[in-house]
Specification:
There is one protein chain. The chain is an alpha+beta fold. It has 14 helices and 30 strands. The strands form six sheets. A nine-stranded mixed beta sheet has the order 3-11-10-2-9-5-6-7-8, with helices on both faces. Strands 19-30-21-26-27-28 form a six-stranded antiparallel beta sheet, with no helix packed on it. Strands 20-29-22-23-24-25 form a six-stranded antiparallel beta sheet, with no helix packed on it. A hairpin with a 2-residue loop joins strand 22 and strand 23. Helix 5 packs parallel to helix 8. The protein starts with 17 loop residues before the first helix and ends with a strand. The N terminus is likely disordered.
Length: about 800
């Protein structure tokens, strides 16, 4: 680093004497010594640390040289603890059995029963924002993550990119001497940058993790995920967890166990930091039948009854205060009593699957802890187990077999789902690879007991309050009294820094650092009744917003409720200036059940003003900025490749959907040079997978096209005649009739002649999936079409030359 000290001397050249020159030279020299001395004393202000200088003295010859091996200084306290952060996904506070819920969570209980628990710990109400805050110790919009990466936009607080001026926990711990590794869901890399060609600056390895194995997007099929190891896309193993089948949660545990074993063997002198974040219990809800069957009949009386039971247990166990009120169901949410009897088996099974999925993930988290114990490291390992990066998700709306319908704002009726499911094989198919099912929003609300709201609601604790347990046998004495200080995921990083005596660096990798927003929670380790150190915290996810200050909480629901699908009436006219606000005194009202807005108008106005102040300070403007690139407003501005034309000289596979041509969303033409053999069969190209996608394929010599609208509607076009043998030019023209998300006319051509036409009634608005790919000549993800499901990947048996894809020019 080049350090330049400049001293301005306002003396004219004619009057500058030699004496003055000498005087100023001495001042400059003196200031330089002081500055350089401060650098050496406070070297931790600048990371990474400089390498240790040689301890040897080189002479002209070996005989005239002195040799002494250099010693790398240690920057951590003696016996610095290992760190394991377990972060579950889309899991509400009323779910785990550890704290009164009905989902069996023995691993969470194990951590709680050897450590301490927190019952007023909070997330941001959404995936990417929570993860960015957790890893940096800064508020989500301050680090560009006002919403998930898939709908990032150009406003600073919503860019989807963690700035290098906010170094992650992994970057700093690595520089101090930790081995660092992350497993599972990442969801903090710009969508258009996740191809195998990078850039890799914003991948996990660019943020301080020396090793990464998992998926970059917001979700993944648990059976057919698109996986990355470090910066390379890799195929998943055929089996996992010692079974004869594959499941992602098991694979993530397997890989973490191997990494821990190798870390102990190769670098036993170094502590480790492991961030283990499975895809569970985020959609799609995928788990083997035997895990779901453990819950058969347990939820038969529905979500309203579930809340009553859990609420009673939460009080009996002391997890919530005795004066807590159970908040009512929203008027827009259906009661269990109003679900038709014919639909209830479907709704029950969806919940049984989610429960089995969540328990299975908790079990595999336990396998990772077992390995740490086996290695003899458990006593000096801090385990931070956070139950959910936000509350349970209501994005399944009324219950669904294809959960991306909600993000694409496509309204459906439950009969469509059940009809499509019956065609696939009925209830037994749920939870398997043929569906991307999610439960009814009523179950998301139930597993958020006793609070209002669900995921995507920053206004209510059902979206933001996450049970957390911390164990550290060597450093924390077990105490079953819940810690009730108001805390947030931004407080995790400062807590670890205090334990390791790491001061917040001022420069990391050449970037001046933003101040931390979090506060350490170490003061709560020994005193469950200690006065809380977090006085203010703002929340905002897509204009569902709130502000906490010293026991008061003001909130505004925002323009939508997550369980209400489709394009909301009047959404384009919504303004945050006309929203209705609520006010709660949390010292008397634990669950936000009693709105004091009418009784305390002065306090409400004070809190609303504070929210705007915090928003300006944290780049949370405009209010509702996270809605910009959604299907509700401007889907055309959602992250995508800047290209409008692609040429593939030969077949490719595994191109991430987020960076691939947006077939099915915009008007385009696909042109392929194909050599057709006898008995031609196979996929020419496929985008996404069985839960939704587009495919062009040859079946028994006939050219076929299928637009799979999230399993509930399949538009198929087939050529009138078989393809001619030999070299042919195939074209697929897709033209939007009106706007994105509307109908689309599709024409198939062979050697310039039209051989098939059809209309897709409803096209796609955002994306088909978060984690599938685009392939030419095969379909490596779950197959788009049932026509070749049993023959997947159904690779084309002819030859494919050049493929060209061009978007239609906007008129």
């Amino acid at each position: 680093m080049l350090l330049i000290i400049k001293l301005k001397i306002n003396v004219s050249n004619t009057k500058l004497t030699a004496m003055k020159t000498a005087k100023y030279s001495k001042i400059i020299f003196f200031l330089s010594i002081i500055f350089l001395a401060s650098i050496s004393v406070n070297a931790q202000d600048v990371l990474p640390f400089p390498p240790a200088p040689s301890a040897s003295q080189a002479g002209v010859t070996i005989e005239t040289s002195s040799y002494k091996k250099r010693t790398e200084p240690k920057h951590l306290p003696e016996n610095a603890p290992n760190i394991l952060i377990i972060l579950m996904d889309d899991a509400g506070p009323g779910a785990p059995s550890t704290y009164g819920g009905e989902i069996n969570t023995p691993t969470l209980s194990r951590v709680a029963n050897t450590g301490i628990s927190y019952n007023r710990f909070h997330s941001t109400a959404m995936c990417s924002p929570t993860r960015a805050s957790l890893l940096t110790g800064r508020n989500h919009t301050r680090v560009g993550n006002g919403q998930i990466a898939a709908i990032a936009n150009d406003f600073d607080g919503f860019s989807g990119t963690i700035p290098k001026s906010s170094a992650t926990l992994a970057e700093i711990l690595k520089d101090y001497g930790y081995n660092t590794a992350a497993f599972g869901k990442w969801h903090n890399t710009p969508e258009e940058q996740i191809t195998s060609k990078g850039p890799f600056d914003y991948w996990p390895t660019g943020y301080g993790f020396e090793y990464f194995y998992g998926f970059l997007a917001g979700e993944a099929s648990q059976y057919e995920p698109t996986l990355v190891r470090n910066t390379s896309y890799v195929e998943h193993p055929k089996t996992s967890g010692g079974h004869d089948y594959y499941h992602l949660s098991e694979d993530l545990a397997d890989d973490a166990i191997l990494w821990l074993t190798e870390q102990k063997a190769y670098a036993p002198e170094k502590p480790f930091f492991v961030y283990w974040a499975p895809g569970s219990a985020h959609g799609p809800h995928h788990v083997m039948k035997e895990w779901a069957d453990k819950y058969k009949g347990k939820f038969d009386d529905g979500w309203d009854a579930y809340r009553e039971r859990v609420f009673k247990r939460q009080k009996e166990s002391g997890w919530i205060p005795q004066n807590t009120l159970l908040t009512p169901r929203a008027e827009s949410m259906t009661s269990w009593a109003n679900i038709p009897e014919a639909e209830k088996p479907f709704q029950r099974r969806l919940m049984e699957i989610w429960a089995g999925f969540a328990e299975h993930a908790d079990f595999n988290a336990g396998r990772v802890i077992d390995e740490i114990e086996k290695l003899g490291e458990l006593d000096n390992t801090i385990i931070i187990y956070i139950w959910g990066d936000n509350g349970s998700s209501a994005e399944g709306l009324n219950g669904t077999i294809s959960e991306q319908l909600a993000q694409n704002a496509i309204p459906t009726k439950i009969e469509q789902h059940i009809t499509a499911l019956n065609e696939l094989g009925g209830l037994d198919v749920l939870g398997g690879p043929k569906t991307d099912n999610m439960f009814n929003a009523g179950w998301a609300w139930a597993t958020s007991t006793p609070y209002q709201g669900t995921k995507l609601q920053g206004a209510y604790f059902g979206g933001t309050r996450q049970p957390m347990a911390i164990s550290w046998p060597k450093g924390i004495k077990h105490d079953k009294t819940p810690r009730s200080q108001f805390h947030h995921v931004i407080d995790i990083a400062p807590t670890i820094y205090e334990i390791d005596k790491i001061p917040a660096p001022k420069v990391v990798n050449g970037f001046a650092q933003d101040e931390l927003d979090g506060v350490s929670m170490v003061y709560t380790f020994t005193d469950p009744k200690a006065k809380g150190m977090r006085h203010t915290q703002f929340f905002d996810i897509m204009a569902s917003r709130g502000i906490y200050q010293d026991g008061w909480f003001a909130s505004a629901r925002g323009p939508r409720e997550p369980w209400v699908g489709g394009i909301l009436k009047g959404i384009k006219q919504w303004s945050p200036l006309t929203d209705t606000w609520q006010l709660y005194n949390l010292d008397q009202d634990w669950s936000q059940a009693v709105d004091l807005a009418a009784k305390e108008p002065k306090k409400l106005e004070e809190m609303k003003a504070l929210f705007l102040t915090e928003s300006a300070k944290n780049k949370n403007l405009p209010i509702g900025g996270g809605l910009w690139s959604t299907a509700l407003y401007h889907p055309e501005d959602a992250p995508s490749s800047p290209l409008t034309e692609w040429t593939f000289d030969s077949p490719i596979k595994g191109m991430p959907e987020s960076a691939a041509p947006k077939l099915g969303k915009v008007s385009s033409t696909v042109t392929m040079d194909v050599e057709v053999p006898d008995n031609a069969n196979g996929v020419l190209y496929a985008l996404a997978g069985f839960s939704g996608g587009v495919a062009c394929y040859v079946k028994d010599g006939y050219l076929n096209y299928e637009f799979n609208l999230f399993e509930i509607q399949r538009t198929k076009i087939k050529s009138k005649d078989k393809l001619p043998k030999g070299k042919v030019k195939i074209e697929v023209e897709s033209k939007l009739v009106d706007k994105i998300g509307g109908s689309m006319n599709v024409t198939l051509k062979v050697n310039g002649s039209t051989v098939g036409q059809g209309t897709v009634p409803t096209a796609m608005s955002l994306h088909f999936t978060s984690n599938a790919t685009f392939d030419i000549g095969t379909d490596l993800d779950s197959p788009v079409s049932l026509d070749y499901f049993d023959q997947a990947p159904f690779s084309f048996n002819g030859k494919i030359g050049k493929t060209k894809i061009v978007y239609a020019k906007k008129s």
